Amino acid sequence: MSIEVTAWTQVQSVVNAQQERRPFARATLRRIAAFARPHRSRILQFVLLSVLTALLAVATPVLAGRVVNVIVSGGESRIVIQLALLIAVIAVAEAALGLVERWLSATLGEGLILDLRRAVFDHVQRMPVAFFTRTRTGALVSRLNNDVIGAQRAFSNTLSSVVSDLVTLVLTLVVMLTLSWQITLLALVLLPVFVVPARLMGTRMARLRREASQLDAAMGTRMTERFSAPGATLVKLFGRPGDESREFAARADRVRDIGVRTSLAYSAFVTALTLVSALALALVYGLGGYYALRGSLEPGAVVSLALLLTRLYAPLTTLAGARVEVMSALVSFERVFEVLDLKPLIEEKTDARPVPEGPVAVEFHDVRFSYPAADKVSLASLEETAALDTRGGEEVLRGISFRVEPGQTVALVGSSGAGKSTLASLLPRLYDVDEGAVRIGGIDVRDLSAESLRSTLGMVTQDGHLFHESVRDNLLLARPGASEDDLWDALRRARLDELVRALPEGLDTIVGERGYRLSGGERQRMTIARLLLARQRVVILDEATAHLDNTSEAAVQAALAEALEDRTAVVIAHRLSTVRAADLILVVEGGRVVERGTHESLLALEGRYAELYRTQFAESGERSAGSRALV
Predict the structure, then answer these.
(1) pLDDT tier at 260 (50, 70, 90 boundaries)?
(2) Is the pTM here over 0.90, yes or no?
(3) Residue 306 to residues 106, 134, 393: CA-CA distances in angstroms?
C-alpha cells in the first residue's frame, strides 16, 4: 500500500468517527465480547493469520536488499536466483494467505451481522404498537443496516488491522534500526507530515459528509412519501409538480456541490501527500546513498530501507487512527444496543397459561388506561428529536366494565375519539391496562400465553392492511398450515373467489404495497377472508365493513354472520346494520360507558344512542331496512 493511500484511509477513518461522538461505558465492551464469544475460534485463527501475513510483508524488502548486495559484490548467480525464487514464493504465500484472511474476515463479519440483525429484529417484534406509532421506520431500518455494518467493521477491519499493523510496525522498526538508525529517525520525524494533515482533512470532510447525509436522508424521505401509492395519489390530486421538482432539484444540487468539493479536496490532498512521499523517498535514497558511498552502509540496505519506509508509514498512520476506528465502531455498537435496551412494555409471563377450551366469555372489569409517555416506548434518536416527552398521556378509558357472554355480540358505538378502538386494542394485548383487568375465558389476558391468545382472538381493523406479497401469503399469515381447499373456501365465503380466479396468477398474484392493487372493498374482504381462515373463537371487528359498497357489504355480512355463529364478538361500527341486531350495545363517550342495552331499549331512552341514531344511523337504516345481519 502506498503512503498516500494509507494516509487517505486515515482521512476516511476520521470522517467516519466524526459522524457522531459520544462517551461509552465499559459495559459496552463486555456486551461486544458476549456477541463475539460464539466466534472466538475464528477470531483466534484470524489474529494468527494476520501475524503471519505481517511477518511475510517485512521479509520481502530484506530479501530484495540482499539481492542487490549479491549483485554489487559480484556474487554467484545461483544465490540471486534462489533469493528471487524465495521472494516469489513469499509473494504467492502472501496472496494465498490474503485470500484466506479475507475469507475469515468476511465470515466473521457477516456472522456478527447475522447475530446482531437477528437480535434487533426479534427484539423490535416484541415492542408494543406504541413504539411503532412514534418511531420513524427509516431510522429503525438504519439500525438494522448501517449501524450493524458499522459494528461489523470492528471485527472484519479494525481487529485485523491493529494486530497486523502492530506486528509489522515492530518488525519494520527493528529491521530499519538495525540497518540504519539515522535514516529510521529521519523517517519517524516525517510521520506528522502524513498524520496531522489527514486528521485536519478528515474533520473538514466529516462536515461535508454529514451535510450530504442529511440531504440524502431528506431526499430519500421525500421520494419514499411521493413514490408510495397513497403519496403519489395525493401529489397528483393536490400537489404542484413544478414546485415538487424544484424542491427536489435544490437538494440534489447541494449534494452535487458537496460532491465536487469533496472530490477536489481529495485530489489536492492525495497530490500533496504523493509529493511528500516522493520527497521522503528522495531523502532516504540521498542519505542512504551517501552512507553507502562512504562504505558505512551496504547498497542493498538502501533499497531495503526505501521499501521498508512505506511499510513503516502504513502501520504507523493506521495505528495513529486506531482509536478513531474503535470509537466509530463503538458508536455503532451502542446505537444497536440502544434499541436492544429499550424494554418492551408488554412481556409474556414465564408461567403464562393457555386460553380454556370451548366457547369463552370476554370481560372488562373497571378498566382504566392512558397511552404511555414517549420515553417509555421510544428513543429520541428514532424520532428525530432532541429529547422525548416524559409526560404521561391523558386517561382515555375511565373505569369501563362490561361482559360479553360466550357466543354473544356486543357493539360499541359513540363519537370518534371516545375510546372504542382503544377498548378493542386491549383484548389482543396491543396495549396493557393501567388499572382493572381484561379477561378472556375468566383469565386475565396478561396471564395468557401470546400464542394461545393469537389462536383464540382474531381482529379485522379499519385499514385492511396487506403485505406486498401474494394472495396466498397474505392469507396463510392467519393459518400457515391451511390447505388449498381451505384458502378457496375462505375466499368463497368472503365473496372473493371469483375475483382471485380471474387474477393473472390466481393465489400467487402479488397484491402490491399495502394491497393497493386491489380496491378498498377488495382489500377489506381479503382481511375478512383471513379472519374466516383463522377460525378463532373471539372476533373483534373494528369498522370491518367501512370500505364496502352496498352490494359488497351485503355479501360480506352474510359471510360474517356465518363466521360469527357461536363465537364471542366485539363490534365497533357507525352503521346501523352492524349494531341493531347485537345482543348488547354499549354507548362509549369520554372513555366511559354512558348507556347500554338493545337497539330498541336504547332508542326508547331518548338519550345519546337515540341522538346518534338520528344523526349517524338514520341514513344507514333507510338503506339497510330489513337487514338483520350482525355485521
Answers:
(1) confident
(2) no
(3) 33, 60, 70
